[in-house]
Amino acid sequence: REYVEGLLNLHNGSVFSVFAPGTSQQMSKMKILSAAILLPVANAFIPSSTFVQRGTSSLSMGVDPNLDLSGNTWKPTEGRMQSTDTGDYLPEGYVDDLEFSDGMLGSQAGLSSSQRSGPELPGMENLGEDSIMMGGIELAEGIPEGMEFIPASVPDDNYDLAMPITTTGKLISIEIKPFCMGYEDYYAAFAAGSHPVFKIQDGAIGRMDRRGGEYTYIDVMCDPRGQGGPGTYEATLVVNIPEDDSKLTYTFTARVG
After folding, report:
1. For labelling alongside 129, which of 68, 73, 80, 140 has CA 20 to 30 A away?
2. 236, 254 in Cβ contact below 8 A?
3. How many CB atoms lie within 10 A of CB 36?
4. Could you tell me which of 110, 102, 107 has the C-alpha nearest to residue 122?
5. Smallest Cα–Cα separation from 194: which of 145, 254, 146, 142?
6. pLDDT tens for residues 211-241?
7. Are 141 and 185 in contact (CB under 8 A)?
8. How far apart are CA 192 and CA 246, in angstroms?
9. CB 218 within 8 A of CB 188
10. What is the reported pTM?
11. Looking at residue 135, what DSSP letter applies?
12. Can you list the positions of beta strands (E) in 3-120?
């Protein structure tokens, strides 16, 4: 108890003696140690008398007469929805007169399907017509040297013809639906053993559109005049697509009488 009271007296700033068992030398060491521990703690509760003055500054706006602080005066039209964002791609003077009742197609609603295939913005109707082609893709001009036209075991289509001996010939147009993933060059020719009454009139070499694109047409003419009179003539047309590693086979049978 006497030791605790001595510590409290030191906190109050008074000089004290600790009454604890031991010699006077031990008591002196304990006094010095207690003072070193409690003095910083006691100082923490003493209020600081230092006064800090904080500086203030002011910012003035509107001194420059050219500074416009009026803000945006736009207000939405009552009863309808509008967008305040106008894209930079719209031509100068473009007026958007569409209404919500025009439907999903907007300004294209009143046009036919062929008219909707072109540019939708005014002033761009002839897009690409006056362009200059640099480079481009070159089409094949002839059948590659050494290419063989070997028919498949199962033909893709058969054409049976019956015609009189006096006929001037008959044209067969083969319609090929594109099936490749990209644009592919093709080469068409009759296989060995085909009768010469059949000849390719148009479309022997070309580029086939990709899947879902336009059809390819190959025109074959059958003209039995001057070929030995009545009889049955046969031929096999092979269409090679080398880059796609595929081919098409068409058989022809003409009965002339």
Report:
1. 140
2. no
3. 9
4. 107
5. 254
6. 999 999 999 999 888 776 788 999 999 999 9
7. no
8. 19
9. yes
10. 0.48
11. S
12. none
- C-alpha 238/C-alpha 198 separation (Å) is 13
Beta-strand pair 246-256/231-241: antiparallel
**Which residue is it, tokens 């967008």?**
83
Burial class (CB in 10 A: 0-12, 13-18, 19+), 252: buried
Helix (H, G, I), strand (E, B) or coil at 25: helix
CA dihedral of 185, 187, 188, 192, whole degrees rounded to 10: -150
Q: What is the dihedral of CA 203, 209, 211, 212, to 10 degrees?
A: -100
pLDDT, tens digit, 9 for 90 and up, residues 69-116: 777 776 766 656 666 565 566 666 666 666 666 656 555 555 555 555
Sequence-ordered list of residues with C-beta below 8 angstroms from that of 125, at least 6 positions apart, any chain:
118, 119
Amino acid found at 241: I
> For 127, phi and psi rounded to 5 degrees?
-60, 120
Q: Three-state DSSP class for 252?
A: strand
Q: What does the DSSP assignment read for 176-223? A: E---SSS-EEEEEEEPTT--TTEEEEE-SEEEEPPTTS--EEEEEEE-
What is the edge-to-edge ordering of all strands in the sheet holding 157-163? 157-163, 246-256, 231-241, 184-190, 205-208
